[in-house]
Amino acid sequence: MISERWLREFVDLPPLSPHELAERLNNLGLEVEGVEEVAVDFEGVIVVEVTGIRPHPAADKLRLVTVDTGSGSQEVVCGAWNFDVGAVVPLATVGSRIAGGMEVGDREIRGVRSRGMICSEAELGLGEDASGILVLEPGHAPPGTDLAATLPYPDVLFDVAVTPNRPDAMSIYGIARDLAASFDLPLTRPEHRVEETGPPTGAAVRIEAPDLCPRFTLRELSGIDLGPSPLWMRLRLRDAGMRAINNVVDVTNYVMLEYGQPIHAFDADLVPEETLVVRRAAAGERLTTLDSIDRRLHPDDLVVAGPEEPLALAGIMGGETSEVNLQTARILLEVAHFSAPGILLSGKRHGLRSEAVARFERGVDPELPPLVSARAAQLMAELAGATVHRGFIDVYPAPILPLEVELPAGEPTRLLGVELDAATVTGYLQRLGFAVEGDDPLAVTVPTFRPDVTRPADLVEEVARLHGFDAIPARVPMGTGLGLPVAEARRRLVRRTMVGAGYFEIMTYSFVGADDIADLGLEEGDPRGRPVAIRNPLSEEEGVLRTTLLPGVLRAVRINQSRHHEDVAVFEMGRVFLPSEGPIPDQPYSLAFAAAGAVPGPAWQGGRPERDVFDAVGLWETLRRTLGVEGELVQEAPAGFHPGRAGRVVRDGRTLAELGEIHPAVAERYGIVGRVAVGEIDLEGLLGEAPVRRFRAPSPYPPVVFDLAFDLPAEAPAAELETAVAAGAGPNLESLELFDVFTGPPLAEGRKSLALRLTFRAPDRTLTDEELAPVRAGIVERVEERLRGRLRGG
Hints:
The chain has six domains: 2-39 and 154-183, Phenylalanyl-tRNA Synthetase, Chain B, domain 1; 43-150, CATH 2.40.50.140; 198-395, Phenylalanyl-tRNA Synthetase, Chain B, domain 3 (3-Layer(bba) Sandwich), CATH 3.50.40.10; 403-469, Phenylalanyl-tRNA Synthetase, Chain B, domain 1, CATH 3.30.56.10; 487-688, BirA Bifunctional Protein, domain 2, CATH 3.30.930.10; 704-791, Ferrodoxin-fold anticodon-binding domain (Alpha-Beta Plaits). It is 26% helix and 28% strand. The protein has 20 helices and 39 strands. A seven-stranded mixed sheet has the order 27-30-31-35-34-33-32, with helices on both faces. Strands 11, 13, 14, 21, 22 and 23 form a six-stranded mixed sheet that branches. Helix 5 packs across helix 6 (247-259). The longest helix is centred in the last third of the chain and has 19 residues, at 769-787.
């Protein structure tokens, strides 16, 4: 949660409504998921100082407390015992209102008049502690001051969802920096001066894993007066979703929220020889972390150790043996830079998700440690009376240098479609903290707090954020070579064809169970029977990557049938994962479909037919013709399919599709009732050689249509007749359609009649009967040669 009041300490924002500020954050790419306006839930409560306490004459558990209200003294009956004379506390005066709407009056308690009420956190709505009075820090405010005026309210809290690539936005200061750039306002970052008045530090640091910890800073503080943090800090931590603990731990959390740099405090008296060693964990080492869990460390874990034993899991969580406690008087303040991948992997390995992990795994600015160490030491000196020792330790063997990226001056205009000159682009980038030199290309130095910016396109995105996405017009791209890639255009054509054939598209998880694949009955040696196991599966039932899309579509059929949707036709397009020789599985693109129940449509002559193998083959023919590809259908049932009711489509020795009805045993294992027409098509092979279709303008001239009926052997396929006719018809044939099949007298035994309707049309003229007469003769001749057929009536 981001506090608007806190933001305004770094940038003097113009007056804005919560909606306007949320909209500005959204436009900067910092998505606001919620807005909460916060205000005190009381009125008429003042700050008072306790000047006297005496027993209640008629109640052992009550005390009579005299307080200085700034305009005089008054006595109040109180049942809390957690404060003494000199304490600064809140007093709800007569006629005031506390949290929940209760009005405070002047009343008599056990024979003693009490004018007002000394309040707890819970009674003021400032916390949940109702066990004692809210004791304010000395000097919180002069007696008589309105308590509400001393608190960081009213305020507006913004719930900002920070994307993984923006570690700089994981802090108040980082978001203030973006807002300052957006409004073109100066960004204020006070100098945090630390007076090192203590003796020289005796602490030492040694980095043995510089690849995982490039920088480690340490500062010693003594004379710590451990106690509660001031109310304003406790409230800010509460509003940010953190629990207040004590003035040392609270400072580390507060500064982390402020600058985005995690901090850790060690009890100096619990660190052997006051020496910290940053190293990889040894095999078999153990560490009990602050959550009281004894953890077995991995050799790739980074630890902060003493000369021998580990003291903390670096960048993730401290250990119990060196934690700050009620007896702590000296601390060693660690502010370090750790490698993002190392923290990410260790956090996942141990199942630890802390605020520190959330920041380090994104990549914290390596330039922050000295600044943040000074800020934390400053606050501990102010709030805990700490003395800062001389000798700030900063071990930084190989400084991380800012990245330099060249940005062609015309690149923003090319990518955004809006004219932006070099001066405008330079101004935007400089406002965001980038150093820019030159004209074309611009030499841009990327600040270390932006590890996500590595390419010219990243810089253009930064320009777009400040220019405003709403100020970038929507335009149709101009030029040649634009549009969808051929493969994607063909995939969309396949999708439209499937939908047009009456199938519904589904999307299933890429994770399946090993049993789902085994239930298909694949042949031994089939690579689909050796799925790739997932190292950290969501569940045991989804422990492998799918090698085929069939389990997903078959489960969809089962689910529909279980919900009384017996007529179902579904398909899925997606990648499957096959074992390979390399570390990454092969990932071809595939299409699977499944249909069960009755064929849709009217049933004028009885019941509708059930789905069967012909639906699968017919769908393949529709796809084939749509894409303009060829393939031989081989009646050889693949494993898991019904023998005699399935086949494969083969082209040049490669199987493009497996089609037919699923084997009844497979259907039973999947819990499916009845026949299921299924198929799986290798889209990589199907689309890889599909011809590119070209647009041809329709002819404005009228067609010539005539019918031809052929007397053929009974075994002659209709498809071969169509092929022979098309071969003899020439380029002006527009379409041919089989419209009649006839057997019986007057045809001879073993003969049949097939009638075709042919449509001819020329693109540049009207065809004449004289032109088509030789074409007609050529068609008849082809049919006679190929099929031993003759023209009926001719």
